[in-house]
Write a structure and sequence with these properties.
The structure is a homodimer.
Chain A: E1 18-23, E2 36-51, H1 59-67, E3 72-80, H2 90-105, E4 112-117, H3 127-138, H4 145-151, E5 160-168, E6 171-180, E7 193-198, H5 204-217, E8 233-238, H6 252-274, E9 282-290, H7 293-305, H8 307-314, H9 321-328, E10 340-345, E11 348-354, E12 357-358, H10 363-370, E13 374-380, E14 386-393, H11 397-404
Parallel strand pairs in A: 3-4, 7-8, 9-13
Antiparallel strand pairs in A: 1-2, 2-3, 2-8, 5-6, 6-7, 9-14, 10-11, 10-13, 11-12
Helix pairs in contact in A: 1-2, 2-3, 5-6, 7-9
Chain lengths: 408, 408
């Protein structure tokens, strides 16, 4: 899908009226690693969130749910290095983080979205926040988005930020976001952290509706390792600083806003998949010709979740039987005898399967196509007109290395 | 669970009236690797099978379904090195294999169970069978079980065979089996090949009932990599040579027979999990205190399927938060605040979580417990009296290595 809106600089503070910071407050031992991000709007915002569906949920999730129940928020605080989950004092810590933000920024504590990411079940204290919140608040800047993006990273190797510009009611609007991966990712929704801000004016109900719709086609189509995490969420703040007529119902403006949100989320998904733990390649699956959307999604997601295919992609091995296998156990109703499969990358297209059976292809050419760092498995079901895309990555030695000794 | 029946030698030909062979017929290039197994009963047997639920199914599955539709069979032929799946001429090949068995053994072609395992979507010819079936049939011996076990191996590093003795109606009976893994294993049923023979007399209906029950608690609780394969099945042949009164209904004899079948299948599952692709450790999860059996099974299976936990076990890292995380997204209804977790091995027990929260433990002692080659994650749900066990393995560099370049 071609991108509809121009990308702009500024990430999570590309929108007017937002400031951000990311500093080292001491959650992590490594002093050179920023570990707390703070994002603040000049004014109260419409707020919408989607949360992990894991039954085990971090204390920050509970506190955030309560804080955004009225559809409004003004700030986001997020630490990396400790998930604040399965701790006896988790809620106390999350509420303490909110109170400290309130004390140092003037935002009401109940307007703060709280998030934590890192190891589950580790003791956590409020001390780093007590000692460091003043300097974090002092560091808030209209160009602090990149620092914030860095502060929420765990095993991520690159910071993930994106922003777009679009027009509503003749007013230029901006929307930007940051997100972190890069393991324990198999959203159902959501399984990472993502914070989006916009200066568009949109009602809380419309913001939630747009977010819930977009999440289904973006973060819920992303998988790194099949593990749905306990802590993670996507939050969107809309402060209305762009001055457009507030979006309060479906219509042309709602559609434009939702398209911008889709573009921001899809881009972040792509960045997260490519930076999946240990990944050397982005692996996407584009399913076309499905009888309905649900079939297309089930099929696409099953393919990018297959450990066997992911390992084959790492090895640049055109083992297309594993694609058929993953389609077969996807749970989707498929007519296997109609399925065509191609491996696609920047340097070429290799058809490997037609009507459910293998066809001859050059192993040498396939190796060349699969040696690129962005691989699409194009599946044509020849049974209808619906399509879907899912994002994932290859399975590598480094995934095992990172996760064999993450905690100690 | 303690083993109820004594183990005996002989594997898949421990039962009276069965012969087996395994030879190199040339499916594989490596001449030192046996690649076709043949198992034949002296007389017609009751036969039962369970098959993969993958929508993409190998041609041998279709042919076998037709051959055992009447509840009887007398021989099993299985090749490794080519899955005979997604080939235009697959059914022709599978029927040709049956016909050649008939020609050289006197078993009717429609009484032959056919199986293939290996790469999907590779061209296959009947030539190796045409040229080699005479010598394979000539090699049939009452002690040929180990050769057959070797012939069905793919990426397995050890042959898997087991046999037990038990008594029905005062008659000593034997039951033995062979199976192969060791990747693309996530049964639903079944996702590997397993062949069991017994000299007990049991009607086809009772044999199928016992098998379907046992599979739910054994092979369907086994996962190596979450990939449900296209080809695989478990077949049981019962020839009645032991002379017991035929089992034709539920009752004490049926229960004894089913217990023996459980023991054979559970032992083979354990062996397969421990020899999972690249595995260095057997990983089991024993869930107790569940409100019902379905909850216990969902919870146990989710834990042993977690890539993150599997990698942590490889690294001997007591990252129990990943256990809680996997329980939380298992789909089971759980009261997280009641969950206790312990890591258990031959050298000790490390409690790590009580009532859903972490408790202090010695990292050194945990490392020692987790450095063993058989690790159980003991999960007490404290919500009832049902239990379940699931079998898996750690996720290692070698899994990636094996599957990054399996085909070429």
């Amino acid at each position: 899908m071609a991108d509809q809106f121009p990308f702009v600089q500024g990430g999570v503070v590309a929108a007017q009226g937002f400031k951000a910071a990311g500093e080292h407050l001491g959650i992590r031992k490594n002093r050179s690693k920023r570990d707390v991000a703070l994002i603040v709007s000049d004014t109260l915002c419409s707020a919408a969130c989607c949360y992990t569906r894991n039954l085990v949920q971090g204390a920050p999730i509970a506190v955030t749910r309560a804080h955004v129940a009225n559809g409004h928020a003004r700030a986001i605080i997020c630490n990396s290095g400790n998930a604040n989950t399965c701790n006896a004092n988790g809620v106390e810590i999350a509420e303490g983080m909110s109170a400290l933000v309130a004390q140092h920024t003037g935002v009401a504590a109940e307007d703060v979205i709280v998030a934590s990411t890192g190891v589950i079940g580790q003791e956590m204290t409020l001390d780093p926040f007590i000692n460091g919140m003043a300097s974090l608040a002092a560091a808030l800047r209209p160009d602090g988005g990149h620092d914030a993006a860095e502060a929420i990273m765990t095993t991520d190797t690159v910071a993930k930020e994106v922003a777009v510009t679009f027009t509503l009611g003749g007013k230029p609007c901006q929307m930007g976001g940051i997100s972190k991966g890069s393991g324990m990712i198999h959203p159902n929704m959501a399984t990472m952290l993502c914070f989006v801000t916009t200066d568009a004016a949109v009602s809380p109900a419309c913001l939630q509706e747009a977010l819930s719709d977009v999440v289904k086609d973006t973060f819920n189509m992303l998988s790194i390792d099949g593990d749905t995490s306990t802590n993670d969420m996507i939050s969107v703040l809309a402060n209305g600083a762009a001055g457009n007529p507030e979006i309060t119902a479906r219509g042309a403006d709602f559609d434009t806003f939702k398209a911008a949100l889709y573009q921001v989320c899809a881009k972040l998904c792509r960045m997260m998949a490519k930076d999946g733990e240990g990944a050397t390649k982005l692996l996407t699956c584009t399913v076309t010709g499905a009888k309905d959307k649900a079939t297309a999604k089930l099929a696409a997601k099953s393919v990018i979740c297959s450990s066997l295919l992911k390992a084959a992609i790492f090895g640049s091995d055109a083992n297309w039987g594993r694609v058929l296998c993953a389609l077969g156990y996807s749970g989707a109703e498929l007519d296997v005898s109609k399925i065509d499969v191609q491996f696609v990358s920047r340097v070429g297209i290799i058809p490997v399967c037609t009507a459910g059976s293998g066809i001859p292809f050059s192993e040498e050419a396939a190796k060349k196509v699969l040696s690129e760092d962005e691989i699409d498995v194009a599946v044509q079901l020849n049974s209808g007109s619906e399509s879907a895309i899912a994002w994932g990555c290859d399975l590598t030695y480094d995934y095992v290395k990172i996760n064999g000794d993450y905690r100690t």
